[in-house]
Amino acid sequence: MALFFSVGAVAQNNDLGTWSVLSGKYTLNKQWNLFFEGQIRSQEMYNQFNYYEYKGGVGYNFPKSVSALFAMGHYNTFQPEGNFNGPKIGNEFRIWEQFVITNDINRFKLEHRYRIEQRFTTDGYRNRFRYRINGIYPLNNTSIKEKTWYLSLYNEIFLNNEGLFFENNRMYAGIGYQINNRLTLQAGWLNRFDNLGAGKSQSKNFMQTILLFSLNKFKTGREPHPSSVD
Fold it and tell me: How far apart are CA 141 and CA 119, in angstroms?
């Protein structure tokens, strides 16, 4: 948890930033699907934009509650002041593979996500490992279906095999609304904690908004667990 690493934290910007996500999916059949996602982030409330990414991939649903994903994307980081001011701080091409296991405990939905990343950055090649635990609780229905409000909580840890073993941590708390079987809206608070090494760290809060949509109505036979691919 980020709280255990808060000693000696260095603030990068005390203003609330924004983190906007657009995530889409096209279902081919009960097993295969395609996805794409775009993001844009700012250091202040819809101002001082300094980051964007776009990515896509192919997913596969195993029987019952396991799914896999292979994807790649492009990630760009600019100066923290101004809107996409150069020179770029980071320019990265990334490939990743992940497995997701979901469990239902009555109406509570629990998701475990394991991801391995191959990162081609401006500082050279790096590997990274991520684990996210995500809980979803529908409020006005016993399952996630049309016209359902739900709560979403997650924590994700980022680990490296070289250099700093612990890189950063994300915590999120938000509320979502499943409008229909094609469209979901979600908004909440996200904290990003970065370990800078040598006893230094920094923490940043964002207001995250997510629009999830599907291009077709094909049903996989599974209950939705709405969350961004991020």
Answer: 41
Q: Which pLDDT tens digit goes with each residue over 217-228?
A: 877 777 778 887
Residue type, 192: R
pLDDT in tens, 130-185: 999 999 999 999 999 999 999 999 999 999 998 889 999 999 999 999 999 899 99
Burial of 56 (0-12, 13-18, 19+ CB in 10 A): middle
CA distance 178 to 162: 41
Strands (E), the chain: 17-27, 32-44, 47-61, 66-77, 90-105, 108-121, 124-138, 148-159, 166-178, 183-197, 200-214
Give the CA dihedral 163, 169, 61, 109, nearest 10 degrees: 150
CA angle 220, 225, 230 (to 5 degrees): 110
> Does the bond joining 63 to the residue before it have cis omega, within 30 degrees of 0?
no
| Contacting residues for 201 by C-beta, under 8 A, at least 6 apart | 5, 6, 8, 9, 10, 193, 194, 195
105: Cβ contacts below 8 Å, ≥ 6 apart: none
Sort strands 124-138 and 166-178 into parallel, antiparallel or unpaired: unpaired
Domains in the chain (CATH in brackets) are: 2-214 (2.40.160)
